[in-house]
Amino acid sequence: MSQLYSQSQGGASGSHVQLQSRLHGLRTSIQSIGDVADDTVRACTAAALDLEELGDSERVAEIDASLRKLIDAQYRLDLERSLVTRLATQLDSLDNVEAEYLSSWEQGMSEYQALDDSGKYGRNEKYRDFRQQLWDLTHEGEPMP
User: Fold this and answer.
1) Distance CA 84, CA 82 (A)
2) Spatial distance between the Cα atoms of 98 and 117, rounded to a whole number of angstroms
3) 124: helix, coil or strand?
4) Is 135 helix (H, G, I), strand (E, B) or coil?
5) How far is residue 97's CA from residue 42's CA, in Å, rounded to a whole number?
6) Exposed, middle or buried by CB within 10 Å (0-12, 13-18, 19+), for 54?
7) What DSSP assignment string belongs to 66-115?
8) Residue 81: which residues within 8 A CB-CB, separation 6 or more?
9) Tens place of pLDDT per residue across the chain (145 aa)
10) What angle do the packed helices 57-90 and 12-53 form, to 10 degrees?
11) Structure pTM?
12) Could you tell me which residues come within 8 angstroms of residue 117 by beta carbon, excluding any fewer than 6 positions away?
């Protein structure tokens, strides 16, 4: 990717500056998507609390499953942001940006996929907060297991 990009832009240093700029824009876009995801978690939590009060456990379970998917997507976004940030600062020292990106992506995803549900969601602050609020609604004063 970097070699092809350098050739098409007429030189390595100019293309690295352009690529760094594009990577910065990508980081900003990823952050914006992450902010929307955070808003979505808050809205889902509010909806789940309302549904729990109405006794609609089936819909609460659907929201729970959706939040888990969102947490998985947020992990991918965080990994993407981390890789883009690292690669933007290392463009001059990497021989093959594409290979480094793909290798790091695969490693990060493999590590995440190897986690059990407790590792993926039980350690996620937003998910724990979601579950805690649901628990507190029906088990006031009792510690959540």
Assistant:
1) 6
2) 31
3) coil
4) helix
5) 37
6) exposed
7) HHHHHHHHHHHHHHHHHHHHHHHHHGGG-S-HHHHHHHHHHHHHHHHHTS
8) 27, 30, 31, 34
9) 444 444 344 445 566 677 778 888 888 898 899 999 999 999 999 999 999 999 999 999 999 999 999 999 999 999 999 998 888 888 778 788 888 889 999 999 999 999 999 999 999 999 999 999 999 998 888 888 8
10) 160
11) 0.80
12) 68
In one letter, which amino acid is 133?
Q
Q: Pull the structure tokens for residue 81.
A: 């942001």
**CB burial class (10 A; 0-12, 13-18, 19+) of residue 20?**
middle
